[in-house]
Amino acid sequence: MAMKKLLTAILLLAGLIPGIVAAVEDMTTPVRIGLTPTFPHDQYQPLEAWRLYMEKKLKRPVEFVRRDRYIETMDLLRLRKLDFAWVCDYPYVYFKKQVKLLAVPVHKGRPYYRSFLIVPKSDTKTTSILQLKDKVFAYTDPYSNTGYLTPRHELQQAGEDPARFFRKTFFAWSHRRVLEAVATGLADGGAISSHVWDTLSIGKPELTGAVRVVTQSAEYGFAPFVAQNAVSDETFQAVQRLLLEMETDEEGRALLRQLNLDRFIAGDAKLFKRIERVIRAAGEK
Amino acid sequence: MISIFNLSFRYKIPLWGSALIVAATVAVSATLIAQSYDDLRSDMLSSSASLGRTLAKTLFSAILQDEIWQAFEILRAPLHGDASVNPLRPEMILALDRQQKVFASSHPKAVPMLTELRRLDGEYARLADLVGARPEPDAPIIDFAGAQRIYVAIPIADEGARLGTLVIVHSNEVFLDRFRNVAWRSTGIGLLVLAVLLPLNWYWGRRTAVPLVELARSTGDVARGSLREPPPGTYAYRDEIGELYEAFGVMVRALREKAELEQEMIRSERLAAVGRLSAGLAHEINNPLAGMLVALDNFKRRADGDERILKTVAMIERGLGQIRDTVGAMMVEARVKSRDFVAHDIEDVQMLLAGEAHKRTVTIRIDSNITGPVPLPASLVRQVLMNLLLNGLQASTERGVVRCHILHEDQRLSIDTENSGRDIPPEVAAHMFEPFVSGHEAGHGLGLWVTYQIVSQLGGQIEVRSEGGITRFRIDLPTGEAK
User: Fold this and answer.
1) Among the four B40, B185, B223, B481, which has the fewest Cβ within 10 Å?
2) Residue A206: what pLDDT?
C-alpha cells in the first residue's frame, strides 16, 4: 500500500516535472508570430514597437517572422515553426483544421473588410471588372481573399473564366504592391483589401491618389490572427489577452492607431461564413 | 586681306598673337568638350553594361518564373533617386522576352508590358532589328545611339539559355545637359585664359613691335639724310633686335663720320683753293704795290714841302699801307727760314698780349712743357699762338680766363686754347677758317684764316669745338724730329 502510494507520488511528480520544465521553457523560448502582407507588414519601426510591447506584456521574447506569401506562413504554422500568425481569412478558412482562431481586428467599428477593385486614375471609364477584359490584372496572392478570390469569384458569377478573361495576370505578393502596380500603370487593374487601402491613404496618399476604386465587394470577416494547434492553452490565452487588452492602455492604443485598427476581439467562426461560401462556390477548395 | 598685312607691327604682332591664342583656346575648349562627351558616353556605356549584366542575371529567374512584379522591382531599383544627381542613371529599363515583347518595363505608362518593341517607334524598331540579328545566349552587348535615346541591350541568359533581352535606355537630353555644362565650363575657362593671355600678348607684342617700329623710323630718317642714332637704351636686350640696334648704331656712326669727313674735305679743299687764290692775288697786288710805294716815296721827296700834296700823298700812302698790310696778312708763307720755337717765344707772346688782356680784364693762363727748342719755325708758331690767344681774348666774357696748354711730346706739338663766352653758331663754325669771317665784331676775320693756312702748310690740324659756353681750339702740329 505504502509502495503504491509512493509510486503514485512518483508518477505525480513525474507528471509534474515536464509541466515545470515546459513552463520554464515557455518563459525563455520566444513566441513566434508570423506576419503577412494582409496588412502593410513591411514597415519596420511601428512593428518593432509592437513587438517590444508584446515582450513587455508577455514577459517573454517575441519574434516576428515576415513572409510575403500566405502559403509560406501557413506552412510554417503547420510545421510548428510559428506559434501564431496574422493571415488572410481565406487561408484561415482553407486550413481551418490546422489552426485556431486567436483574435479578429476591428476596423471602423466592425470586424469586417472588403475587396476594392482598383484601376489607374487615368482610367475614368471602367465601372466594373468586366470592362477589364484582355487587360493586365494584378493579384495579391493566390491565398488572398480580397486580392484574388473575390475578383475571380465575381468573374465566375458573371459567367467568365477567370483564367482566360485577362490578357495577363501576375501576383505582386502584397496589397501595397498591387496598389503600386496599378498606380505605376504596370497593371490595368487590381484588387486589394479595404483596410490596406484605408491605411495607405493615410500613410502614402500619393499611391492611393494615383488610382481609383471602381467597386467594393461585400463584407468579409477581417483577416484574423490564428494560432497553430499545438500552442499551449496558457500561451494562447496570454497572447489573446494581450491583443484584446491593447485598447485598454495608452501604448496599446497608440499601436492600434499605427495599425489603423480600433481593437481586437476574440471573434468566432460565424464571421467567416461568407468566405466559406465563396470558397465553395469558386471551387477553389 | 592685303590691308591687314600692311598694318604696322605694332598692331600686327598683337593681332596675330591674339588670333593664335583665341584659336588655341577654342581648340582646347572644343577638345575638352569633345573629350568629356566621349568620356560621358563611354562611362555611360560601361556603367550600363555592368548594370545590365547584374540585372540580367537576377531577371533570368524572374522571367523564368513569370514573376512580373519581381522583374518590375528589379528594373525600377536602379532608377531611384534624382536623375540630376547621377547623369549616368538610365531613363528607362525594359525586359524583353524572346519575341521582343515587353515582359516588364520600369515605366509601364510609357511602355506597357506585352508591347512589341518594334511597334514603339522607328528607333526601337531599329534596335529590335539589331537585337534580333543576334539571338544567341552569348550575344555581345549592343549599344545603339538613336536621335533621341541611347540604348544598351544585354542578353538575359544563363547556362546557355536565352530568355530575352534587357534594354537600358538613356535620354540624349541628359547628355545635352552635361554637354552644355561642360561647354559652359570650358567656355568660362577659355574666357579666363583669354582674359589673362590677351593683355599679356598685347603687352609682349607691343614690346616686340615698338623697337622694330622705332628702328624702321630711324632707318627712314637715315635714308632721308638725318644721321641720328636711336637714343641709347631704346632696346636694352642682347637678342637679335638688340644686335640689330647695335649694328644700326655702328652703321649710323660710320655714315656720320664719313659725312663729316666729306664735309671736312670739302672745307679744306675750299680753304686751300681760297688760300691759293688769295696768295696769288696778294703776289699780283704786292709787286705793283711795292712799285707804287717806291714811286710815291720819290714823289714825296720831290714835292718840296707843298702841304697839300704831302697831305694827299700821305693819305694815298696810308691807303696803300692798309692794302699792303691786308695783302701781307693774306700772304702766308710757311717756307720761311726761321729759328726753332723755344719757351721764350711763349713769354714774348704773353707780354705782347698783356695790354689787350688788361684792357678787357681777361686773364691769360698758359702752361707748357716746352724746355728745349721745338723744330718748328718760331715766327709761324708765335703767329699761330698769338692769333689763337687774341681770338680767345676777344671772344671771352669780361673777367674771363683764357687758358692755353702747350704740349710737346711724341714728335707733335699741340696747342689747346679755351675761353668762356658765347658759343659759336654752327653756321659760323662751318666757315670759321675762311677769310673775313668773324665770330665777333672786333676782328677783321683774317686771324683764324691765317692760322689755318699756317697749320695746313705745316702739315698739322686745327679744330674748333664750341659747346656749353666754352670754345676750344686745338692745334696739332707734327714737329718732324728724328726719333
Assistant:
1) B223
2) 92
